[in-house]
Amino acid sequence: MTRGSSYWSYVEGRAAESEAKMRNVVYAINLTLDGGCDHTNGVPDEELFEYSTHLVRGADLLVFGRKTYQLMVPFWPDVAKNPSETKADREFAEAFVSKNKIVFSQSLESAEDKNTTIVRTNLRDEIVKLKNEPGKYILVGGVSIPSQLIELGLIDEYRFVIMPIIAGAGRRLLEDISLQKKLRLELVESRIFKSGFVALRYLKQ
């Protein structure tokens, strides 16, 4: 695995390449060894925050469902305004706040973040439309909306961070989804952090 500045040059180069074609939908999530994806599992360190910050910076649109959005906002905007937070936390927060966001929700009445648009139309149609617009990749977070996009075949790239934790309980990816066929993915990058977290990047075959 390439490390240091050369690693980020490679990541940014790949992001630039994607601008010339249909935008990729990238799904990023942290998982325990037993498949748990609850946001309370694990404590990211500065190295993982740096990884996540570069991932957010490389996108020009963030997509969430209501539950994930309300976990992120107003939490991260408040961190961005707080000078007592760590440098790593504030850099991630500032990257997050700077991005345009879409929230798919039928119940959310208004968005607290000024860069957020609430979408109530068909998920598939909206994502297909966004993929055909010019720009960098679309970064998707959470569980429910990404699970639906996986079922629809609209996730192009997966960024899994595996935590050295066995949770034994909690929410799992694709819990309420039945895939019609197995998805085969190609591992194209991996990175081991000092904490034991492992970042894996897969492309849809």
Radius of gyration: 16 Å
Number of domains: 1
Assigned CATH superfamily: Dihydrofolate Reductase, subunit A
Number-wise, the strands total 8
Question: Helices and strands, in N-to-C order?
Answer: HEHEHHHEEHEHEEE
Please give the share of residues in helix: 25-40%
The major sheet is characterized as: 8 strands, mixed
Number of helices: 7
Q: How far is the first residue's CA from the last residue's CA?
A: 21 Å
Give the CATH architecture: 3-Layer(aba) Sandwich
Unreliable spans: none
Shape descriptor:
globular
CATH topology: Dihydrofolate Reductase, subunit A
SS-derived structural category: alpha/beta
Give the rounded overall mean pLDDT.
88
The order of strands across the largest sheet is 4-3-2-5-1-6-8-7
Residue share in β-strands: 15-25%
List the helices and strands and how they pair.
Blueprint (H helix, E strand, L loop, with lengths): L3 H15 L6 E8 L13 H13 E7 H7 L2 H6 L6 H12 L1 E5 L11 E4 L3 H9 L5 E4 L3 H9 L4 E7 L21 E8 L5 E7 L1
Parallel strand pairs: 1-5, 1-6, 2-3, 2-5, 3-4
Antiparallel strand pairs: 6-8, 7-8
Features:
about 200 residues, alpha/beta, Dihydrofolate Reductase, subunit A, 8-stranded mixed sheet, 7 helices, about 35% helix
Task: Please explain how this structure is put together.
- The protein has an eight-stranded mixed beta sheet with strand order 4-3-2-5-1-6-8-7, with helices on both faces.
- The longest helix has 15 residues, at 4-18.
- α2 runs parallel beside α5.
- Helix content is 35%, strand content 24%.
- The chain is globular.
- It is an alpha/beta fold.
- The protein has one domain (23-204): 3-Layer(aba) Sandwich (Dihydrofolate Reductase, subunit A), CATH 3.40.430.10.
- It has seven helices and eight strands.
- A hairpin with a 5-residue loop joins β7 and β8 (198-204).
- The protein has helices at 4-18, 46-58, 66-72, 75-80, 87-98, 123-131, 144-152; strands at 25-32, 59-65, 100-104, 116-119, 137-140, 157-163, 185-192, 198-204.
